[in-house]
Amino acid sequence: MIKLLMMLPNWLLLFLAGKKQIEIDGRKLHIPFQYLLKLSGNPFENLDDVSPDDFRNGFIAQSELSPSATPSVEWKDHEVEVAEGKIRVREYYSPSISSDAGLMFYHGGGFVIGNIETHHDLNTYLCNKLGSKVFSVEYRLSPENKFPIPLDDSFKAYKWAVASSEKLGIDPNKISVAGDSCGGNIAALVCIRSRKEGIQCPKAQLLLYPWTDLEMKSDSIESLNEGFSLTKPILEWFRKHYLNDLSEASLATASPLLEEELTNLPPAHICTAGFDPLRDEGKKYSEKLLEAGNQVTYKEYSGYIHLFANMQFIPGVKQSIDEICEGFKQMMN
After folding, report:
1. Do strands 268-275 and 296-305 pair parallel, antiparallel, or not at all (unpaired)?
2. Domain map (residue ranges) of the chain
3. pTM score > 0.90 for this model?
4. Rounded to the nearest 10 degrees, how much is the dihedral formed by the CA atoms of 207, 318, 105, 54?
5. Range 118-123, long-range pairs (CB < 8 A, 24+ positions)
6. Which residues partner with 273 through β-bridges?
7. Packing angle of the helix pair 31-40, 10-17 (nearest 10 deg)
8. What gap in Å lies between CA 296 and CA 292, rounded to an integer?
9. CA distances from 52 to 44, 254, 298 (A)
10. What would the pLDDT profile of 71-83 be if each residue is shown by its tens digit?
11. Do residues 101 and 161 lie in contact, with contact meaning Cβ atoms separated by under 8 Å?
């Protein structure tokens, strides 16, 4: 039903939203998003009463609004050994793929929610549009597995792909990383850690509205602290469940924006949303990478909200994802 409603003209959606078009920081909210926010409301008004499982179930239900999986793309699951267990990595592939490049994808969800399934449809789309295999990593979640376990799992998955490249049918020198939100945090840290440990660095990095600073000190954290799906209280809730202690937020191993040595990192394609509390820190990270001499492309989708890549039913978003893929595809190859 929501997907059908989004086909209505903007003037009618704005009327149904019950207020004039929202404008903050000189940006106007994309009208279909404004109506979507009115429909969704605030399902978790008191986060103190919300358990991780409650939040996970809500996120899974929300992900059902994602577009259907791309029919031409197939997938299979691998098991990767990590400390004290195994994790799943889902490989997406298509008979039409001619490139030997590969992409490691780390899903968003504040290190607490989300999984391979919540980002399944997006990854089939990325596989098709990028024309390369995609490997979606199901790192272990917090609070059951606190910092730095999700990062360690993700780094181990990247090293597994490099070591298994021949078997996987990809070039170890053409493995890129990508992620949305906290997955962007992970992708950025995989690049930094690879360089520091002297192993093969990813070919390129795609960071979608990344959470780069767990100290949460940017202006947009305050100016967009509520009303746009992702809120400051939700970010604080994620952070509380992820970190062992709040002081860890100031560690560069948790917050890539705080890393002092950002030279010699893979080319980065960074995208932010204008109505996302993480907007400013994503832009700041792109600026720091550029200042350190790295190749960077940056774009803000000014009328969009957090997690827009999973909302291709919103008019205009699919075209934006296509644009992102086209730009990143050049970096990958």
Report:
1. parallel
2. 1-41, 49-332
3. yes
4. 100
5. 118/59, 118/60, 118/63, 118/310, 119/63, 119/180, 119/310, 120/66, 120/69, 120/75, 120/90, 121/63, 121/66, 121/67, 121/68, 121/69, 121/70, 121/310, 122/66, 122/309, 122/310, 123/90, 123/92
6. 301
7. 30
8. 10
9. 12, 21, 33
10. 899 999 999 999 9
11. no
Side chain identity, residue 62: Q
Please report, to the nearest 10 degrees, the dihedral formed by the alpha carbons of residues 310, 316, 322, 323 taken in order.
-120
Q: Which residue in the block uniquely carries the two structure tokens 């793929």? A: 97
Say how many residues make up the chain. 333
Residues assigned a catalytic role: 181, 276, 306
Please give the helix or strand (H or E) that residue 79 lies within, else none. strand 74-82
On the CB side of 140, CA atoms within 13 Å amount to: 19
Amino acid at 312: Q
| Mean pLDDT value across residues 193-208 | 98
In the CATH scheme, what is the code of domain 49-332? 3.40.50.1820
CA torsion, points 315, 114, 150, 257, in degrees to nearest 10?
Answer: 30
User: Rounded mean pLDDT of 47-74?
Assistant: 85
Neighbours of 118 (CB within 10 A): 21
Percent helix, strand and coil across the chain, each to the nearest 5: 45, 20, 40
Judge whether 99 and 131 are in contact, CB under 8 Å. Answer: yes
Cis peptide before 266 (omega within 30 of 0): no
Q: Is the pLDDT of residue 204 over 80?
A: yes
Task: Give the residue from 37, 174, 71, 178 showing the smallest Cα distance to 119.
Answer: 178
Burial 54-87 (b: 16+ CB within 10 A, else e): ebbeebeebbebbbebbeebebeebebebeeeeb
Amino acid at 38: K
CA 242 remoteness from chain centre: 16
The pLDDT of 106-113, averaged and rounded, is 98
Angstrom distances, CA of residue 206 to CA of 27, 68, 270: 24, 23, 6
Single-letter amino acid, residue 103: L
Question: Would you call 21 helix, strand, or coil by DSSP?
Answer: coil
Q: What is the pLDDT of residue 116?
A: 97
